[in-house]
Amino acid sequence: MRVRDLPLSATLVSHYESNGIEELYPPQVAAVEAGIADGGRVVAAIPTASGKTFIAELAMLTADGPGLYIVPLRALAREKYETFAKLPGVSVGISTGDFDSAEEDLGEYDIVVATSEKVDSAIRNGASWVEDLACVVVDEVHLLGAPGRGPTLEITLATLQRRVPDLQLVALSATVDNPEVIAAWLDAELVESTWRPVSLRTGVYADGTVEFDDDSSLSVDVPPIGPNDDGATEATVSLVADAVENGGQCLAFVRSRREAETLADRLADEDLSPAPELGDELAELGGTTTGERLSECARTGVGFHHAGLRSTHRAAVENAFRDRRLSVICATPTLAAGVNVPARRVVIRDQKRYTGDSMTWIPVLDVHQMCGRAGRPHLDPYGEAVLVGDESVKDELVERYVTADAEAVDSQFADPEALRTHVLSVVASGFADSLDGIADVFSATYYAHQHPNVSLADLVADVVSDLESMEMLAVDGASLSATTLGAQTSRQYVSPTTGARIIAGVRTISEMADENVTARTALEVVCDTPDMHDTYLGNRERALMYQYARTHAAEFTTAMHEADPFEDWLTAVKTARILHEWSEGADIETLVDRYRIGPGDLESRVERAEWLLGAADALCAALDTDVPEFREVRALLSP
């Protein structure tokens, strides 16, 4: 099937053909036959690089009205926005922030790219443009099974289907164990395929040889391992060097930020693909130690990528790799679930990661996502993915990852925190005013589809009681309504637990002496909430934070002897201290060195604090009080 055979304008056909897209891939043909261009609902569970973006574009371009493309990450939203903006004659908007806004101007675009959280918040805030949608495409729909993000995506899709009954839904997924269940939930046709435009072979390295799943093998020249050398690292270096020397690019995945930087330093010693100009460009983006380390590695053609990097550095690494100016990226697994950065070879050095106090195996789906990055259409003759092991674990790695199917996608909607958030949302938004009404709304969720025998009214009864005790809901017999505090909490897009903590903090502030209410007070309140990212508290700094907390005890709304759990509160104090020093003009390098955080960590916490301080100010209005410190410190946090 050819592009010119599709119901697209001559201008769009010319655009695709000029970009080398003339013939459809088999999965794309299957999607067309499933009705993707005729308003049909489709779930496409196909490998990376098999044409999911074109399937999405075809659905939105042939829909009888505006399209919405939902993504899990901001970085992916920006990438898709830039991709869709190249379509001739198509206006594209993007929305990833301002959770207390309906952003009515989004209704002016042909296509809107947004995170699921933004769409959920727009619905809560009464966005009228949602009702005009003709087509919604969900990228990475398998994230329905992710704690936190999954329930938000689930309720968003359930609500969209209720508000727009004739909505065309297209869900894009990696290959998972139960795509037919997702398709049945969405009343969609399933397009399932393992076809790839570039062949992929996956194998395990052990003792100098990679044995692939197609019965081929690869001998790897690994120098003798010295007493201080790490065998897995040296094997990874050899595998990466071999790929680069043969004209390919390589992604190397490790378990942690520190390991990513350490491996990049080790690979930099090989001077695989000198790129001094790129190093200079990265150096101009910022002067932190991490940034300098990145620019030095980049001079040798090697980069690293993790959440501790500033967003500008992460984007620069991604773009340089896509432009083939960077030969290697050493990354944590989060890169595999994010933006498009394919390579000829993927090397997975670590298959376990720390979770709490122990090491656990990485989920099969995550490893398959990493492996799926191997092989770039029109650039690579093949793709290779290699898990690094040794003879003692070789067979286990093959059984666990190479020949295994990815896990099934199971709903996380019954998580108590998720239930509190979404029960409050449906009541505050006017979608339900009773237990039975909530159950009716939730009957359209993936959870209800997977658990048809569960009483949804019973499931949410305890949650309603919790929200009543939090002063978020008013219960009058069988009737439910959101209180002023509950409505404002939902509108600000903070969790009920966060809203309750802020409300308690504001009330405590009203009883404090004026001279004790400071910027530290405001920051302690918002940092001691579940919506603020955790900050690592090391044993060496615990005593220093304890002393800081004692010194400023009069400024805090939580008494030290009442903090429970104390470690969590002390961690919040650390975050508040970092943000306070930032607001007073401390430079990023000082804070990164002093508190052992990454530049990206500081960036994300500043952003979170601005959001939460704004929510706190709004909740003050609902309480008919004023704490100007919330506004004042928020203004100081902005660059």
TrEMBL record:
Q: What class of enzyme is it?
A: isomerase
Domain annotation Helicase ATP-binding: ranges: 33-194
* Reaction it catalyzes: Couples ATP hydrolysis with the unwinding of duplex DNA by translocating in the 3'-5' direction; ATP + H2O = ADP + phosphate + H(+)
**Start and end of every Helicase C-terminal domain?**
236-417
Q: What domain of life?
A: Archaea
Q: Tell me which InterPro entries the record gives.
A: DEAD/DEAH_box_helicase_dom (IPR011545), Hel308-like_dom4 (IPR048772), Hel308_SKI2-like (IPR050474), Helicase_ATP-bd (IPR014001), Helicase_C-like (IPR001650), Helicase_Hel308 (IPR022965), P-loop_NTPase (IPR027417), WH_DNA-bd_sf (IPR036390)
Keyword Iron-sulfur in annotation: no
Q: Give me the residues that bind ATP, please.
A: 28
Example of a GO MF term: ATP binding
Q: Provide a GO biological process annotation.
A: DNA repair
Cite the EC number: 5.6.2.4
In terms of Pfam families, this protein maps to:
DEAD, Helicase_C, Helicase_dom4_arc
Q: Would I find Zinc among this entry's keywords?
A: no
Tell me the keywords, alphabetical order: ATP-binding, DNA damage, DNA repair, DNA-binding, Helicase, Hydrolase, Isomerase, Nucleotide-binding
Residues in coiled coil: none
The family note in this entry says: Belongs to the helicase family. Hel308 subfamily.
What is this protein's function per UniProt?
A: DNA-dependent ATPase and 3'-5' DNA helicase that may be involved in repair of stalled replication forks.
HAMAP family in the cross-refs: Helicase_Hel308
Assembly information from the UniProt record: Monomer.
Q: What is this protein called?
A: ATP-dependent DNA helicase Hel308
Q: Which organism is it from?
A: Haloferax litoreum
Gene that this sequence comes from: hel308
